[in-house]
Amino acid sequence: MNTGMRICGAGALGLALAGCSGAGQTELAAAVLPELYTTAERDLAALRVQGAIDNGSPVSVVILTDRGQNSGLVPINENRGVVTWLGVDGSTVSTRDGLIVATRGLGGDLLAADVSQTNELLQARKPGRVQRFHTELTGDIQADTRAFVCDITDSGPGVLELPDGPRDIRLMVEDCYGAQAEFLNLYWIADTDGTILHSSQWLGPTIGNVTLRQLRP
Amino acid sequence: MSQQLFPKILLASLCLGGTAPIVHAETRPSLSFYGLPGLIDTPTAYSLPDGNLALTSGYYSGVVRNTLTFQITDRLTGSFRYAYLEDFDGAVGLSRYDRSFDLHYRLLDEGDYTPAVAVGLRDFGGTGVYGAEYLVASKTFGNGLRASGGIGWGRLGTYNSFDNPLGVLDDRFDTRPGSGGISETGQLTAGAWFRGPAALFGGVEWDVNDRLTLKAEYSSDAYDEEVARTGFDRRSPFSFGADYAFDNGVSLGGYYIYGSEVGVVLSYVLDPRAPAIPGGREIGPEPIAPRQSASALGWSEDWVTDAAQTAGLRNRVAERLTDAGLTVEAVDLGAGRVTVHLTTGRYDIAPQALGRAGRVLANTLPDGVDTFVLIPSKAGVPLSRITLNRSDLEELEFELDGTWQSYVRADIADAADDAPAPEALLATAFPKFSFDYGAYLAPSLFDPDNPVRADIGAQLDLSYVPRPGVILSGRFRQPVIGNLDESTRPSNSVLPHVRSDFNIYDRESDFEVSHLTGEYFFRPGTNLYGRVSAGYLERMFGGVSGEVLWKPVDSPLALGVEVNYAKQRDFDVLFGFQDYDVLTGHVSAYYEFGGGYLGRIDAGRYLAGDWGATFTLDREFANGLRVGAYFTLTDVSFEDFGEGSFDKGIRLSIPLSWLSGEPSQSGFGTSISPTTRDGGQRLSVRNRLYDVTRNLHDPLLAKRWGKFWR
Predict the structure, then answer these.
(1) Res. A115: pLDDT tops 80
(2) Do B13 and A28 touch (CB under 8 A)?
(3) Which end of chain A is more exposed for a tag (fewer CB within 10 A), N or C?
(4) Cβ–Cβ gap B13/A200 under 8 Å
């Protein structure tokens, strides 16, 4: 019974997948490793970052807290106030006044964010309630916009040790909640000019928390 | 606040990652030995989360059930099962390999006080070993306790059964007709559904915690056949067990069943919308830089009128686009506008290629070139024309709603009249020679003589494009190691052996010419696409194939006509032909229903000369993963068709990008057809026009525009 059964292609638990034409002949798909040229592109990005650092470019460091990864960042472009920073693995982080508004290449990327209300209060170092909006790229490549309500509080003054010496700062805390998640962002802001020198920002369920620190202005 | 607070808060911020995000995930129901939502051997009324795929392998007492289950819609679940029943046909010294299809439909959602209710058909088109129907209700109580109870017919109406309550409707429900045996395999057994004695089943499950679930059930399946044929010892209707769910979608269950046996179930549930790296991990695009004048970019301000300058800028544009992973065929530069013919290169998601091309153009061209016209092509034949405004790109790059706004502002049009001007063609574009090589793996599973066969070998692809529209290409294969050639089971088909001699091809071929063809693509007019292919079209047939497709650039509907003359190739898969030839062809209608559902009907004449139609329904996720099913009915009688009665199957394709998180045109596709017979078989021609065009048309462009800015 059932003797002529023939299954073209997939193994029992999807372990072996291969191509197969519609007509029962076994056709095959080559098992392909992730493309080699992307490795070359990443190497080029690393060289570019290193070159910029050697040439005195501003430098920041980003730490993907939840993944235990970190990278030096150099600014490569600015479009209408949004600065895009390149990392050594070819991924980019874009900031507006130190607030991260986009990433590319981290997986589950933040496509865009509207953090204008947060920015306004942080610049003024004022507490208050704000809304922030994130658009993230889902696994089914949809641009998914989420809204959060955040309470910004002033946690007081302090000193931050930087390579070029201590800086007087004020720590502002942004406590957010929304249907998708609850998270806490922290900003260490320079007293002198309002620059965010060090921060921890949540970028979505895939990337999680990111620490961004200015190393060389 | 003092400074001491800082280390603490910093520490808190570092620890947040594991705890802060509260992401609501759908819970997945536990699966039974049948690979569908259920307790141990009986069903529950639940469903998998919409769109999820489940692979289940269950073993007990000489029986293995492997099941692929797909949540076709929110309510409808479908399964294909391949089971091995050791010594089931022991009288003639054989074990049974059985395949079956199930459907499960959730009629009612669970309410605060009302249960979920589902109806199901098991093995509705197979040999009937597992044939059963049920109506089941399930209710969740506090503390993770769920109870299910139902009434079953067929196998589920064999223990402690009673007269069919449906008998009050019609006397014919009182008796269940017997299986017609192998000759009726594959036909819908609708005549027997819900007929004959019925019985009650039920059970409870309890979530001890997020991972561990305990189960107890009372089954109304008497296992009559197994008891009689294999000596299965069914001592009790009760079974007990536990399920443990791991984080990664894997569950493992262990059971003590029917008072005598121990069984295990391993299942893996996969959400096609949740690849390991959502949205991909490829490197970021070059962000858009402020506009610069021609002189700032190193060109003279009169570059438009200076031929040498224009040529230089054209080359730079081509170079930069190539660096970004695109393949450029032509660049036509004017004062305010650039027109680029290109292919999406390595990007399987076309909008990503378009978005990257737009940014490259914005960063390469002098101020004043405001309109970017992108013409995605197949071998120089334009498939659509997408016009982007430079200022929109600059404005929307980091806009919250930039994805949708950029789609709305892009103009997507037909490109029938947009063949590249000869002077715009790049010197490198035509003629173009390319090659690719690699290893291949060809498995053939579940042949009763040997459930696992495979060949591994080397593969070479060659392609030559002498001028736009013409592709000469070939694929050559050399198996290195394998045992496909050990299959000796002869075809008993009474039709011309157009497919059922597949194992003779495996035995008699070594180095093979998988295909060797010349193809010509052209645009007969607006919304029309044409193709002519000739040569060794596929592994078993050569000949000539012609196709015309009507597909407006924004239409969910496409219509096509294909006519082929095909002659069967020699079993050595080299250059000779056998005597059999046939005129075959189809008219086709394709429709995208929305929500990722794609329907398709192909009606016409098949390879064995039979006339009929193929019905296909696919569900395609925006990221490219696709699951579908098809069946073909032709004028070949079920009897002449042989085992299976008519051709049908399910298919699954997974893009490599889904697995690796890197853009790639490669992927893995498989078609699982319970039987390979000769009725309802189509010629396998590459580059059918619908597949060539739809990636660069709406509605698919819109659906995938999320990667435009990625």
Answers:
(1) yes
(2) no
(3) C
(4) yes
Cis check: omega of the bond before B366, within 30 degrees of 0: no
CB A187, CB A174: distance < 8 Å: yes
Beta bridge partners of B391: none
Report the alpha-carbon distance of residue B394 to residue B407 in Å, rounded. 14
Are the CB atoms for B523 and B416 separated by under 8 Å?
yes
Whether residue A176 is predicted with pLDDT greater than 70 in this model: the reply is yes
Contact check, Cβ <8 Å, A90/B710: no
One DSSP character per residue, B337-383 reads: EEEEEEE-TT-SSHHHHHHHHHHHHHHHSPTT--EEEEEEEETTEE-
pLDDT at B567: 97
Q: Which residues of B touch A12 (CB under 8 A)?
A: 55, 57, 66, 82, 445
**CA A112/CA A133 separation, integer angstroms:** 8
For every residue of A149-174, DSSP letters joined together read: EEEEEEEEEEEEEETTEEEEEEEEEE
Q: Please give, rounded to a whole number of angstroms, the shortest distance from the CA of B111 to a CA of chain A.
A: 23
Number of H helices, E strands in chain A: 2, 14
**Per-residue model confidence (pLDDT) at position B379:** 84
Asked if the Cβ–Cβ distance from B539 to A25 is below 8 Å, we say yes
How far lies B485's CA from each of B505, B510, B511, B638, in Å? 8, 9, 13, 29
SS3 B41: coil
Question: Residue A38 and residue B662: Cβ atoms within 8 Å?
Answer: yes
Of B403, B670, B674, the CB nearest to A20: B670
Using 70 as the pLDDT threshold, list the residues of chain B that sit under it: 1-27, 126-127, 178-189, 446
Residue ranges and CATH numbers for the domains of chain A are 36-216 (2.40.360.10)
CA atoms within 13 A on the CB side of A162: 23
Query: How many other C-beta atoms lie within 10 A of the C-beta of residue B429?
Result: 23
**What are A213's two structure tokens?**
């620190």
Q: Is the pLDDT of residue A20 over 60?
A: no
Task: List, for residues A88-107, the tens digit of each pLDDT value.
Answer: 999 999 999 999 999 999 99
A171 vs B: CB within 8 A: yes
pLDDT bucket at A38, cuts 50 / 70 / 90: low
Q: Regarding predicted confidence, which is higher, A33 or A192?
A: A192
State both tokens at A119: 């920015």
- Three-state DSSP at B31 gives strand
Nearest to B443 among A1, A18, A96 (CB): A18
Cross-strand partners of B378: B381
Residues in A closer than 8 angstroms to B654, CB to CB, are 17
Q: What is the pLDDT of residue A32?
A: 36
Distances (CA, A) of A125 to A153, A193, B98, B205: 9, 11, 71, 55
Out of A18, A141, A211, the one facing B442 most closely (by C-beta) is A18
Per-residue pLDDT, averaged over A15-41, amounts to: 39
pLDDT for res B12: 34
Q: Which two tokens stand for residue B260?
A: 């005598």
Structure-block tokens of residue B463: 């392609």
**In chain B, which residues have their Cβ closer than 8 Å to the Cβ of A71?**
none
d(CA A78, CA A65): 26
In this prediction, residue A13 carries a pLDDT of 25
CATH topology of domain B307-429: GMP Synthetase; Chain A, domain 3 (3.30.300)
Q: Are strands A196-202 and A209-216 parallel, antiparallel or unpaired?
A: antiparallel
The distance of B438 to chain A (nearest Cα, Å) reads: 6
Residue B545 vs residues A89, B88, B515, B565, B604: alpha-carbon distances, Å: 47, 47, 13, 6, 14
Domain-wise residue ranges, chain B: 53-270, 307-429, 510-701
